[in-house]
Write a structure and sequence with these properties.
Number of helices: 4
Number of strands: 0
Helix content: over 70%
Radius of gyration: 23 Å
Mean pLDDT: 82
Order of helices and strands: HHHH
């Protein structure tokens, strides 16, 4: 009688692709976070407004990023009100 032992399954060949996609996604989120916080800190807003915006970005990152770029930036408001 021979003993038969199943080989331990190795990692799936596409696991590295999933891991790479997750790492790329996290790195892009980090870059976007740094870009938005840098934009907020370099804006002409008062210190209190900068603190509120940064707290909003930390609390709700993606929603706050969109809000900052479409609503919050002083340059955006100035250009959208300028008819020329």
């Amino acid at each position: 009688m021979t003993s038969f032992q199943a080989a331990a399954p190795g990692p799936h060949p596409l696991h590295w692709l999933l891991a790479a996609a997750i790492i790329a996604g996290l790195l892009s989120l980090l870059v976007m976070f740094v870009a938005v916080v840098s934009s907020i800190l370099n804006s002409g807003l008062s210190l209190g407004m900068k603190v509120l915006w940064v707290l909003f970005v930390v609390w709700m990152p993606v929603l706050a990023w969109l809000a900052w770029y479409f609503i919050g930036r002083p340059e955006t408001r100035r250009h959208s009100l300028d008819p020329a």
